[in-house]
Amino acid sequence: MGEEFSAALPARLRTQGTATRVEFVLEARSTLIGRSPQCDIQVDEPLASRRHAEIIREPWRYLISDAGSRNGTLVNGEVLVGERELRHGDVIQVATTRLQFEDPNATIVEASGLPRANLSVWVNQQSGEAYAHGKALELAPKELAFLTLLFEHPGMVCDRDQVALTVWPEYGGRIGSYNIETLVSRLRRKLEHAGASPDLIVTVRGRGYRLTNPDASPAGTAP
To answer: How many CB atoms are located within 10 Å of the residue 13 CB?
Structure first.
């Protein structure tokens, strides 16, 4: 595929309301849904557009958007506007065809959720979720990428070049210090709002950043 994803299992779409249930594995970065034979998931209905909707797979999540269809796309009965992150159990409707989104990693999150409240910071790589003292953090993708990098290297300094390449791969890491400092400031505020100390993220002058989190365990695992 040319793009590396996490070790998370790929999600699936299952047809609903049909005598024979059909399953589609969402392994590719892009999955097109529509009437065209060239679509990855073909919906052979007159109300479906040739290119109706698209699902994008990212390392930590799946995003769905309408592809400019004539009759729109529904998610859980609501008209899809813009881009939306899919959650386990969501039902996508294209014309009269209903597809349920099933994320096998949702059970992994549930099974390993007990110790979260005891941890200052905890990141589940497989689901792309981060927690502070058991409270879910609402992080932007780049904030999550930065926190995950620090969490994977507890107590170690991640230099600015490493941060830039990890968080801004689309620019080859060629970004200014202001971008990094702004990102760190936003993340610290979110940690503080969740009840964690903003000092968990330490600035090491002239070098980079490290996470001071003595109770951290390897990402995606429980102690």
So the answer is: 24
Looking up tokens 């910071």, which residue turns up?
Answer: 121
Residues with Cβ < 8 Å from 88, sequence gap 6 or more?
101, 102, 103, 106
CA distance 186 to 153: 20
Give residue-wise pLDDT tens across range 44-54: 999 999 999 99
Helical ranges in the chain per DSSP H: 105-111, 141-152, 160-167, 177-193
Q: For residue 126, what pLDDT is reported?
A: 61
Greatest distance between any 2 Cα atoms in the chain: 64
d(CA 135, CA 121): 9
Residues 149-161: tens digit of each pLDDT: 888 887 789 999 9
- What's the start-to-end Cα distance of the chain, in Å? 34
Please say whether the beta carbons of 173 and 161 come within 8 A.
yes
Question: Architecture of domain 12-104 in CATH?
Answer: Sandwich (2.60)
How long, in residues, is the chain? 223
CATH classification code of 121-211 = 1.10.10.10
- Sorted by where each begins, the domain ranges of the chain are 12-104, 121-211
DSSP state string for 111-137: HT-GGGGG-S-EEETTTTEEEETTEEP
